[in-house]
Amino acid sequence: MPNKQLIECVPNFSEGRDPAVIRQITDIIESVEGVKLLDADPGKATNRTVVTFVGEPAPVIEAAFLAIRKAGEVIDMRRHKGEHPRMGATDVCPLIPIANITMDEVVEWARKLGERVGRELDIPVYLYEYAATKPEWKNLAAIRAGEYEALPEKLARPEWKPDFGPARFNAAAGATAIGARNFLIAYNVNLNTASVRRANSVAFDVRENGRVKREGDPVTGPVVRDETGEPVRIPGACKAVKAIGWYIEEYGIAQVSMNLTNIRETPLHIAFEACRESAARRGMRATGSELVGLAPLQAMLDAGRYFLHKQQRSAGVQEEELVRIAIKSMGLDELTPFDPAKKIIEYRLREDSPDPLLAMDLRRFANETASESVAPGGGSIAAYVGALGASLGAMVANLSAHRRGWDDRWEEFSEWAEKGQKIKDALLKLVDEDTRAFNRIIEAVRLPKGTEEEKNARAQAMEEATKYATEIPFQTMELALQSFGLIRAMAEAGNPNSASDAGVGALCARAAVQGAFLNVRINASSLKSREFATDLVERAGRMAAQADQLEREVLEIIRKKVDKE
Predict the structure, then answer these.
(1) 563 belongs to the catalytic site
(2) Which of 39, 84, 302, 501 does the annotation list as catalytic?
């Protein structure tokens, strides 16, 4: 459903060494209908597991409560030791808006969860980030200061009365921070040193909070203070980054452990580069990195493009290649294998809404089209042919970007190739969407029609499904028509050895436009909303005529080039 509210929950549990304990917690999360468990990432050295799950708010809150309760039963904080700061069996439980929900709404859900945890489980709960009830509690580090060991003394002080739950020490479960925050990436950069002090020096260079300014010696010199007596700080290189250095005994290396709290301000690859540069200045090397939990696809694509641009290579390659370049450039697979299907949020969510046609090989796709089934039909084929046309345009752009003697033009062709990839990917999505649109009509036809109310509901469902089935091929027309800009540019200025490929791309693009136009017309003819149908068909007709003209122009450009040869 397009308007479904989605939130993500990323609780951190103080157990990373006993798979049986971790499994009890993840099993209880998966038992809640409507919740998708995306990841469980245990760390032996930190003795901590980061769990990620997503769903609509109510089931997510239920799963979070059950997980916090289970963690309190199976984890005893009196015996816990680990490298990461912690104060409870469920140390922190953030809620993150993902789709169709505001931060204010997520704050309300965080408060509901916190109230229930405090009331039913007798665990002290502090609200943080956007849910914080005090400015000083907005920062998680401030709440967690002193960690589990400081809780008995802190809870005895009035200013540390928790937001929910008792103001008394729960020795087994500790305390829990529940919050609402923006998407955060937990990310560690590996160094070729075992020195925590040197790793911290890199962390101080990188993190937004930087380091305390000192007179003379930057380590042992007296602290410089402002007029109010507060220490003066030297800001670090990266906004919205928190970082510390630590030693990972499991791998025998020190890491810079970071939380990237706003990846629009400091993307993944910029944080890695900042660590790499700082380490190099200090005689060390960043050998790789580690993603804790999951990352959004866009963060990986941006990283792939960044590193290709550094090589002066075209970034107009397929999505999978951009992800591969990002993994290799940041060494995300240095310590453990990095499986994009498990570590990228969108790829995990696709498991619940697969694209069956795109998952087929070419032979199976052709066989399925040729079978007795009415879908996939002309609409899916039109979208796929359009994707092939855009792919050929992107191919010519990439070949041109890497042509010997054209080194000064790589950015020009890279931009064209990236446009082609975007059009191709959008058209590929419509291959399965066209079939889904047709299936919506079939579902509407099968609705009961006994009573007058049922007849009206069925008629309304059929109208909406048919409207959608008309809009999908219209989108195919728009995208395929856009690809002519790329294809014509490549016919005129691209690698002359690939002129014929641009020509085939033009033929595919026109076929996609005209094929989709047939689907627009036949579906629009069944619509009761005649004004909508007439307007859509007229706009589609203009696009079809434009595609014919553009195809002729491209083929004429190519004919002249071929004749010169």
Answers:
(1) no
(2) 84
How far is it, in rounded angstroms, from Cα 106 to Cα 10?
14
Residue 129 φ/ψ region, left for φ over 0, alpha for ψ in the -120 to 50 degree band, beta for the rest = left
pTM above 0.70, yes or no: yes
Tell which CATH classification among 3.40.630.10, 3.30.70.670, 1.10.10.10, 3.20.20.10 matches the domain 185-350: 3.30.70.670
Residue 3 has what pLDDT?
61
Give the closest residue to 203 by CA, choosing from 147, 93, 284, 138.
Answer: 284
Phi, psi of 64 (to 5 degrees): -65, -45
* Catalytic entry in 39, 432, 434, 501: 434
Q: What is the 3-state secondary structure (H, E, C) of 473-519?
A: HHHHHHHHHHHHHHHHHHHHHCCHHHHHHHHHHHHHHHHHHHHHHHH
From residue 144, alpha-carbon distances to 50, 52, 153, 183 in Å are 17, 21, 13, 20
pLDDT tens by residue, 350-378: 776 678 999 999 999 999 999 998 889 99
How many residues are there in the chain? 565
Closest CA to 29 of 40, 17, 14, 44: 40
* Position 480, amino acid: A
Catalytic (active site) residue 333: no
